[in-house]
């Protein structure tokens, strides 16, 4: 039935949300469901960025014919009008070979005023234009004359006809209006349809961590669009080397080292832009832990925002001086730093565990990470079932 659905899609040249399986292959599962435990902190209910109250995610996958393999993913910080009720935010640039839009105003003012949208490199301006249309049409924004749209991107040209710029305004609107809380689709979905990671199929991945009550009980949620090269490691196990698929390996087939990675971090902790940037920096530790090294052509960005109402920035602020700005004390940030490291690392691994084989432009196929072989390697290196070891405090 799944193969028939795909055949119909090819025949009519459809462009739609496809979260179903396209190719018959081994069962895909999230890493934690298979005994791959990253770090020591507990997850939120969904183990997703949507565990942070108010955050919603929407995907639109654009798959058409033999060559179109792309999409758009929307992350909404809260349910209200984000322009009128901005959230504190920051960006950390790991490697600047990217086309992220909206970065300078975030760095200057310390907040974001639109949802965050992820797509492919050449579609970023079109997606920004559609997001502006969406924002100025919202009730309350009738007199708005300046909008800083926040767009992240990675290059999916290895599988997608990227020059065709196939993400259109209707796809952007669909991802925004259908965004929801709860479980988040991962792998070959939305902005992750055509991405590649560490020699295998990449995609969208997400994870979360919950701090103990003694550390504030805050939640950290992360969503990634993974599309970069390196030598895959999971819990210290040399998976890429064991599978004989890694950067600089001698083989006939070219290895894709460039590409980029977008990391979106949400938290309900009251943090200033300064401390959100410090939080975003720590996500980059995870990038190295999984075997990424930020190649020359990899644009790697971390965007962090706080949903805490005390950190909101109203558009029509009547106060000349901010008298009650909330920010966690520097000495209390270490647990949050640890949480973002763990959640980012698991989100990247989830993006690969949930991805599937994909054939795209020029009939090129990128294979997904082989789950069963990977689990064998992890068992060999004692990198499985770490959750059975002593647990972190929940107090």
From TrEMBL:
<dbReference type="InterPro" id="IPR016117">
    <property type="entry name" value="ArgJ-like_dom_sf"/>
</dbReference>
<protein>
    <submittedName>
        <fullName>P1 family peptidase</fullName>
    </submittedName>
</protein>
<dbReference type="Pfam" id="PF03576">
    <property type="entry name" value="Peptidase_S58"/>
</dbReference>
<comment type="similarity">
    <text>Belongs to the peptidase S58 family.</text>
</comment>
<dbReference type="InterPro" id="IPR005321">
    <property type="entry name" value="Peptidase_S58_DmpA"/>
</dbReference>
